[in-house]
Design brief:
The protein is of the alpha/beta class. Helix content is 23%, strand content 30%. It has helices at residues 6-13, 17-20, 24-37, 54-61, 73-82, 120-129, 151-158, 174-177, 242-254, 319-329, 378-391, 443-452; strands at 44-48, 65-70, 89-92, 105-111, 131-144, 147-148, 165-169, 184-191, 201-210, 213-219, 229-230, 233-235, 264-272, 278-287, 302-309, 334-338, 355-357, 370-374, 395-400, 403-408, 411-416, 436-439, 458-460, 476-481, 486-490.
């Protein structure tokens, strides 16, 4: 801390051009700067270390309510004389702890004060406490002949309190100083807003469905995951809700103008890529409309746009997207997908699964846990049931010597050729299991399943009544496999 007799310096203080602002050119230069640093609306301004009140006079002249403080009684006497008739209150006090009681201000102004403080961090903390929310701290400082405080150091001290610090170099403007200067002079304007809380990028992903197929795009020229397949996707912009973001991204990437009501939430996932930051992904489902065929609207970012079977997805996909699609197929709604830094961006079918299912808020009591079917031929059952359950969104779950299972959500279906079986064929007409019934997304998907079923060991029952074998208004298909098990597929 320097030891300057400010009372003794008071009589000659205004002789410096930037102190007294007696030169109209210098005064005008400071006035223009103050207009940009201070609010446009009339505000309460606290000028600390005001000296003879030259800056306070400019501020009051711009319509603000000013309170000025200086520890030198001689400086305060001159400031009061200079500011007479402006309504400015001029107080004798320490700028580090100004005598303002419980008053709060819109602006605190301090010129060439911080460099004199023995503990600037503590003083800045106190000054921020005197600001109203959203207020601003205007600090004019510099380094002269090796003394002073640099902009880097002062900015670092401010980061404890705010992330919004505007740095304005002043050395290059000789009008402010009445001469050319070659040292560091600057202003920092810091807003009284605390450092931001943790924020995450919000992604949106489109699962455009054409029956059992989904549309995927191959990335190219983006610098990230190029060559890999991904669903049409993008980021929500500031102030944009996720549904509006999905509509915009669909139009930009695949040229499809979707109505917001066409979108259905498929899955929400928090994801962290290898070495990256967390983000939130919203996966939306929509149906393909032949009247609005998708096209590659961004050929500089996409080298291929094509349909792929949802139950036989390719492996050359972005792992994040693949995990979302696998969760969607399994009927999951909330996932965490957290990469390790050493993981690959690409999906690795033999890698460690990173997706963690988050169960929804509901009691498990009474919900179906699993269904177990004993079958005469495991290989035959695996092929037939594996195809059907896969098309219905189930994913392979367990595998052991005598059985297999497929999971969707927190329930699963088991087929087993148990050595404890008593033998004999399954007869759905005897007491016991008659059939299993599954929802199907829509009638087009049901018709696709019926058409493909004979190639996978399933035949259509009651063909003369199909698709209303269960009654008028009940659109459904009844299938039977080689072992005689029946399923009912029901569409809305």
């Amino acid at each position: 801390m320097t030891t300057i007799d400010w009372d003794a310096a008071a009589d000659s203080f205004d002789e410096e051009p930037d102190h007294g602002l007696l030169d109209p050119v210098v005064r005008s230069a400071w006035a223009r700067r103050m207009e940009t640093w201070l609010p446009t609306a009339r505000s309460a301004v606290l000028d600390l270390g005001c000296g003879t009140g030259s800056l306070a006079l400019l501020v009051a002249g711009q319509g603000h309510r000013v309170t000025a403080v200086d520890r030198s009684t001689r400086m305060v006497e001159q400031a009061r004389a200079k500011l007479a008739g402006t309504g400015t209150e001029v107080l004798v006090g320490d700028a580090a702890h100004p005598p303002v009681g419980t008053q709060r201000f819109d602006v605190i102004l301090a010129r060439h004060i911080v460099w004199l403080l023995p503990d600037p961090a503590a003083v800045l903390r106190h000054w921020f406490s005197l600001l109203r929310p959203g207020g601003r701290l205007v600090l004019i400082e510099g380094v002269w002949n090796g003394t002073g405080i640099s902009a880097d150091r002062l900015t670092a001290l401010l980061t404890e309190h705010t992330e919004r610090v505007h740095h304005e170099p002043l050395s290059g403007d000789p009008l402010l100083w009445g001469k050319e200067v070659d040292d560091e002079r600057y202003a920092l304007v810091a807003r009284a807003e605390p450092p931001h809380r943790h924020t995450e990028v919000v992604d949106v992903h489109l699962l455009l469905r054409r029956g059992s197929d989904v549309l995927l795009a191959r990335r190219a020229g983006t610098g990230y995951a190029d060559g890999l397949l991904h669903a049409p996707s993008g980021h929500a912009e500031d102030g944009e809700d996720v549904r509006a973001a999905m509509v915009r991204e669909a139009a930009e990437e695949i040229g499809v103008e979707l109505d917001p009501d066409e979108l259905r939430v498929a899955l929400v996932m928090q994801h962290r890529g290898p070495g990256g930051n967390p983000r939130i992904g919203w996966f939306f489902e929509a149906d393909h409309d032949p009247a609005r065929p998708p096209r590659n609207a961004e050929p500089d970012k996409c080298s291929q746009l094509d349909w792929f079977p949802l139950d036989a997805l390719p492996d050359d996909m972005v792992a994040y997207c693949r995990a979302g699609l696998d969760g969607y197929r399994a009927g999951q709604r909330f996932l965490i997908h957290w990469h390790q830094d050493t993981d690959a961006i690409a999906h690795d079918p033999d890698g460690v699964p990173r997706a963690v299912l988050l169960p929804v808020s509901a009691t498990s009591t009474g919900r179906l846990h699993h269904i177990e079917l004993w079958v005469p031929d495991l290989a035959e059952a695996e092929a037939e049931w594996g195809w059907l359950l896969g098309r219905l969104g189930h994913v392979p779950y367990q595998r052991w010597a005598h059985g297999r299972s497929w999971r969707r959500g927190d329930g699963y279906v088991v087929v087993e050729r148990s050595p404890d079986g008593s033998g004999g064929p399954h007869d759905r007409l005897r007491p016991g299991l008659n059939h299993l019934a599954f929802h199907v997304r829509d009638r087009a998907a049901l018709d696709d399943l019926v058409a493909a079923a004979p190639g996978h060991g399933w035949r259509l029952l009651f063909p003369e009544l199909h698709p209303y074998a269960g009654g008028s208004g009940h659109y459904a298909a009844y299938l039977e496999n080689t072992a005689g098990y029946e399923v009912e597929l029901v569409a809305p």
